[in-house]
Amino acid sequence: MSDLLDGLNPAQREAVTTTEGYVRVIAGAGSGKTRALAHRFAYLVCEAGILPENILCVTFTNKSAAEMRQRIHKLTGDNDTGYICTFHSFCVSVLQEDSHAVQYPKNFLVLDNADIDAMLGIIYEERGLTLRHMTYSKARDMIEMRKLFQNPDYYRDLIAMPLGALEDKYRAAQTVSDIIFYGYLYQQKKCFGLDYNDLIKVTLYLFERDADIRLKWQQRLEYIMVDEFQDIDKLQYELMTVLCGYHKNLFVVGDPDQTIYTWRGADIRYLLDFDRAFPGTRTIMLLQNYRSTPQILAAANDLIDKNHNRMDKILEPTRPDGVPVRCHHARTAEAEAAWIAGEIDALHKQGVPYRAMTVLYRAHYVTRTIETVFLHEEIPYTIYSGTQFFCRAEIKDTLSYLRMIAYRDDLSFLRIVNQPRRNIGERRIKFLREAAQQTGASLYDTLCAHLDDELFKGTKARQFVQFIQSLASDYADRPISEVLAETLDRSGYEKMLRTEGSQERLDNLAELKQSVYEYETTCGEESTLEHYLARVALLTNTDAGGTRDQVRLMTVHTAKGLEFPYVFLCAMNDGIFPSKKVHTWPGMEEERRLAFVALTRAQDGLYLSEAEGRNFDGSCRYPSRFLLDIDPDLLQYTEQPPEAMLAEARDYISLREKYLLDENAELPLAAGDRIVHGVFGPGTIEAVDQTRAVYRIQFDDMKTPRDITFRAKLERE
Ligand SMILES: Nc1ncnc2c1ncn2[C@@H]1O[C@H](COP(=O)(O)OP(=O)(O)OP(=O)(O)O)[C@@H](O)[C@H]1O
């Protein structure tokens, strides 16, 4: 049989060669599920003769999609790798082909957070809201929650309601939440924008409405594979179920011990109950770990074993013995960072490149001390966060120019019309807004209609319009990289950066040009500007490359699915990891899984550290319960926490555990209940916030409501 099966263990082979029907692979961390997926894809193409365009392979991030594509390309030698993408990206493909069926134009905009913020800016200004009413990030969360839970049918308004009617709904809105929500839907509709939440919703709606289109996609996707199935949410699950409805070939891979996105709607039951939902399912277990040394695995197994609600499975090592897992207790956070820097330096002196070492943490804020020490010790590092490359102003501006050329939408217009300065400031924008409001035209068209007005004399509006028009008329036939270069040149944007002397920003533009070039050369026929813009909106910083020899710093969430020779998991203190925001048992188990994910990223060396001191709220810092979960014989302490501190830590942890709630347990009180509080007297519960474990209570004797923790003693009135 083919070379494709070489280098696979029997369980992996079974996963690769079981092509038909419903297949569930329960894979432990580092057990080669990505390898199995890639080989299965190649097997279908090379051995079974299936066309790549008839296979859908869903990954969790764009980065893993890119890696998967590369792996498959290596195995098949074929450039055409079909649909290897995230759920969102797949939905973009569906909608770009078929959104007309729900009366949404093909050239809809995919909105990212910065676009949403720009829309919020417009709404806030129009309705006199300030950040004190609600910050943008809260507003975004609120919109998401309403779309997911309170107003799940919102998309019908977005799609079917005429723009005028949606505007009326917005203007009539009274509460801050309604104003923002309907204002946002109105803004979305105005530019035919779809955010991440909408993509799947609208695709599902499309399939529900149009049986022919649904059947076309069902027939096209002869084989469907889904990676990281443990983190799938309800909508994604629905989409999968619809898509496999014709050929009934669905292959899912997941690790129940690595579910870390419950807070975003992931539900492990889809993996655990898969066999019940899809009768005839074949289940394959991948438990041999190829990634980590037995020492690292022993610590990880011991940790995850403390979760009660889990499927029993133990990772089996295949690698030879390595060095012990090192653990360090420091007196201060600075001393902890210095220890990490010292270990990194020692490894580097032994010939380990910086890029082989990664520092992981639960929360971003802990990096400050580490960065300070790294800077001082001259250790090169780079932080992977959600707000880097594609969110930088110069990248957003450039992409807005490209969007302007393709769509001439208001959002892009507002972002770049005066960037570089064209003397089109607030006063003139206000005029354009009001004029546009009256005619219902876009801001750009309004500007075109008023170019000869006195108001626009003395501005560079005409040059701007000419430049956009000339590119808009011929971009479709040119490579995107060429359009990009001309845009940066003719807009004066690159010149502006040069004049500012901003080398870093120019470097970023160079990086963007490179990424566009790479996109063009890997996308074949699909490389239209619209296609590129829709994809790029789905990218986040972690998708930008990074090959320099630097230590990487990232959160554990970001590290999901990755592996590194040396891992430093820092700030292992209770209240940081596990986060002090956890108030429930399931939440605590999810934190433990997150720690398990962190530990299992390491291949050769694992370093765990924590520091004494005080938290922001003045409370004392104790070692994390997750460190205490691991048998001390499996750890090699450089310095152990003092015995007295360990005893205090244990007391503290067991006290906190007493207050952990069982999420499924019924809360005794609900919104609307009348209560009496020992200090504040009688009041009414306005809302129950499970995640923060608080009741919002309006006390009779107070003007404003208070958040009161579940722990406080409340009597029914
Ligand atoms: N049969 C095998 N023989 C040797 N090495 C293997 C085999 N299968 C996988 N590996 C190696 O094991 C490591 C982990 O594999 P992979 O990245 O596919 O794991 P994974 O199951 O996706 O991990 P995780 O779920 O923890 O992210 C990789 O370095 C891979 O090359």
Automatic annotation (TrEMBL):
Gene3D superfamilies listed in its UniProt record: 1.10.10.160, P-loop containing nucleotide triphosphate hydrolases, PCRA, domain 4
Gene Ontology terms: cellular component: cytosol; DNA helicase complex
BP-aspect Gene Ontology terms: recombinational repair
Name of the protein this chain belongs to: DNA 3'-5' helicase
Keyword Transport tagged: no
Family membership: Belongs to the helicase family. UvrD subfamily.
UniProt domain UvrD-like helicase C-terminal: residue ranges: 294-561
EC number: 5.6.2.4
Reaction catalyzed: Couples ATP hydrolysis with the unwinding of duplex DNA by translocating in the 3'-5' direction; ATP + H2O = ADP + phosphate + H(+)
One example GO MF annotation: DNA binding
Species, as recorded: Butyricicoccus pullicaecorum 1.2
Keywords: ATP-binding, DNA-binding, Helicase, Hydrolase, Isomerase, Nucleotide-binding
Binding annotation for ATP: A27, G28, A29, G30, S31, G32, K33, T34
Pfam families linked to this entry: UvrD-helicase, UvrD_C
UvrD-like helicase ATP-binding domain span: 6-293
